[in-house]
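In practice, a research group might receive sequence data for several interacting partners and want a quick structural hypothesis before committing to experiments. The following worked case mirrors that situation: the sequences arrive first, and a predicted assembly follows.
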Amino acid sequence: MNAPESVVKAQSSGPNAHGYRSYKLGQFEFTRDEYFAHLRWVGRNGKQMSHSLDIGAFLRPLMRDVAWGFFYGYVNFDEVFGTCNKYSSVDVYAGTYNGQYSRAEVDLLINLPTDEVRACFVEMLEDWVNEGYDPFAAPMETGSPYGRKRGENLAALRRQRQLAKRCVGLKDDLFMRSDANGFTVNRHFQDVPQDQPELHPEPGFENEVHAFNLFAYLSRSDVTWNPSFTSVVKYSFCCPTTEEHILPVIHGNDRVEWFFQMCDEIHWNCGDKKTGAPRARVIMKAGDCAAMPADCRHQGYSPKRSMLLVWENGSPQVVYDIEAGKSPINPVSF
Amino acid sequence: MKTIFGSLDHYEKGRVEVINDNAKNYAFSNVFEICNKSKPYEKVVMGINQIYVLEAIRAEGTSPWYSCAHDEFVLSMDGEVEVHLVKLDRPAVTDPDKNGAIQLAAEPVGKKMGWMKLRRGHQGMLPANCAYQFRAARPAALVMQTTQGDLSVLKWAEICQAA
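A structural hypothesis for the assembly, expressed as tokens:
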């Protein structure tokens, strides 16, 4: 998924005492102060409810939700608040997929047109992110999200996700990363070889005899937890990404998703998609391959910047095949 | 800070730590472990999602010639491999919707496209309807992005953590 343009306007109030606008989306209200994002809604039982998140822990998933066009399935900001992509609309919820909240009927789920949710999230993101803070960056590579309103960082927020149509480096396809175009080797990948494959095309086959150094390409990524497309086979998308610190969203699958750990390691917490109840820990090291079932939610912890191949089946049909029982929830049976 | 890559000679495998689940649901395997137990050029499926697969391939010596109706991509995770490409005079796969690679029965007939040498981390394109052959002087571990075909080998019980 990727984020298209939006023309719908968000509902917002003027700046508060900290300099930030407040936003309304359906029955949800969002405000921020120097440290926190605060949410308010009326639960199914009619009671006023509220929830607070550290502002950095709110802006990082907000950034992904915007950039990924609400991604595949559920983007949980934390154990309470999140979104679910319905592919022409978006569910926005609080407590719906938290066992305790839903049993107490203090949860709320609203479904809105995608454009309406996107407009609110984009404007909120652009207003609430200050100069010097990049929600896509690893925490040690960016400034602070805290404090009063001070400037903006639109260049970082409006990055386009890098999506190859066929393969990185082909003519008329996604560009290679280099020092010259501003993609320098990350501090954690200084030891990754930057050599390129030997190519010996016969005349006329220069764009067919093609290869590139994927690891060198990834070593130059300026973002974390933001899969790009590097090679495409029909709806099979190789979406490698570099990971450091914590996946900012707890991703709930609407399809089976595969991970191939190409270097270093990531530790995954896996839980029940509907309740969040813990199911397993998956410790992935270099060369390990594992699937996330379609009924789980997961969040990764990467102690050092690492290279992860997120392998997606991007078919628009697959989620409906799973709902209809034509495609399995678990990746394989044996 | 050192970047840790695995290899056929040395890798450290992770694990599934079950809390309330079945380890099989995660289809957890390791490409180097698979390739250390595979026959040369056996296309062992380590990831599958409907028609799509990731195959772990041990490259060793010279492979048969293959062809496929759609693009495929190959990534070297360890070792060095040459990939030789031929533009076939007539497609070997007559059904354009056929999934996965086929093995050619004879040497390919067509114009040489050229060749590439891949080392660890290099990803090469295998264009639709060409013929391709791998040549590896020493064992290498490859990952293929393709679709499930006649040559794909499923052996989950042998490669995945079961408990």
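Before designing any experiment, note the following. The radius of gyration of chain B is 17 Å. Residues 31-37 of chain B form the longest helix (7 residues).
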